[in-house]
Amino acid sequence: MRQFLVALVVAVVTAAAPASAHSLQELQTQLGDREQYFQPLDRPAPEFVLKDPDGRTVSLESLRGEVVVLHFIYTQCPDVCPLHAEKIAELQRMVNESAMRERVRFITITTDPVHDTPEVMRDYGPAHGLDPVNWTFLTSGPEEPEKTRDLAKQFGHVFTLTDDGFQIHGIVTHVIDREGRLRANFHGLKFEPTNLVVHINALTNDLHAKPHPDEPESLWDRLKALF
């Protein structure tokens, strides 16, 4: 039953093209009313140039044209990082069941580039349900051990290295639009995945049109009616 409802939600979300008349600002306002873990933003995302496990360079500039869902983890994390990766995998499954699949890129960045070697990184995605079709794991490499923790700090997300090799940190999912602007943070693990998917859909469609006076029902009301 859950899979059927998710499919219906994805279908309604994907159908919301710009011409259907809900502005991004309106959606963000509605989302703020419905999702306590949502933080709207509108500023340039921090630039980065990193590498995937195969040594290919990936930069923020190279991701222009795609909506980017980005988060920071380290693979030795014993508790919340695996849960965060699995939350991202859940979002990815929802997105990839729709036409958004070709327009969204999921990015994981390690904050422990010394331990998280290419071999470790290659094993992490399959272990947590992440699909490489539009998911990439990035590192600075062991020669720049603090680079990605510094990058996380630029996103407003602190990873504090402890004496025992672990890192104290929170959980944030960052959303970057197709022009490279940071548009939202979703904090923690308790946010409703559908809310983030609706926000992604608005960004993939450049949803900036004003609501039509003959269309009082919001996208959120249509989604709610499915349940």
Number of strands: 10
* Share of helix, binned: 25-40%
Q: Given the C-alpha coordinates, what overall shape results?
A: globular
Which spans of ≥5 residues are poorly predicted at pLDDT below 50?
16-21, 208-216, 223-227
User: What strand line-up does the widest sheet have?
Assistant: 1-10-9-4-5-6
Give a quick summary of the entry.
The protein is α+β, with helices and mostly antiparallel strands and 227 residues long.
Overall description:
The protein has 227 residues and is α+β, with helices and mostly antiparallel strands. Helix content is 34%, strand content 21%. It contains seven helices and ten strands. The strands form three sheets. Strands 1-10-9-4-5-6 form a six-stranded mixed sheet, with helices on both faces. It has a two-stranded antiparallel ribbon with strand order 2-3. The chain has a two-stranded antiparallel sheet with strand order 7-8. A hairpin with a 5-residue loop joins strand 7 and strand 8. Helix 1 packs parallel to helix 6 and helix 3 packs across helix 6. It is globular and about 45 Å long. The termini are close together.
Compile the SSE list and pairings.
Layout: H1 2-14, H2 24-34, E1 38-44, E2 49-51, E3 57-59, E4 67-73, H3 80-96, E5 104-110, H4 118-127, E6 135-138, H5 147-154, E7 160-161, E8 167-168, E9 172-176, E10 181-187, H6 193-204, H7 219-224
Parallel strand pairs: 4-5, 5-6
Antiparallel strand pairs: 1-10, 2-3, 4-9, 7-8, 9-10
Helix pairs in contact: 1-6, 2-6, 3-6
Structural features:
227 residues; alpha+beta; six-stranded mixed beta sheet; two-stranded antiparallel ribbon; 10 strands
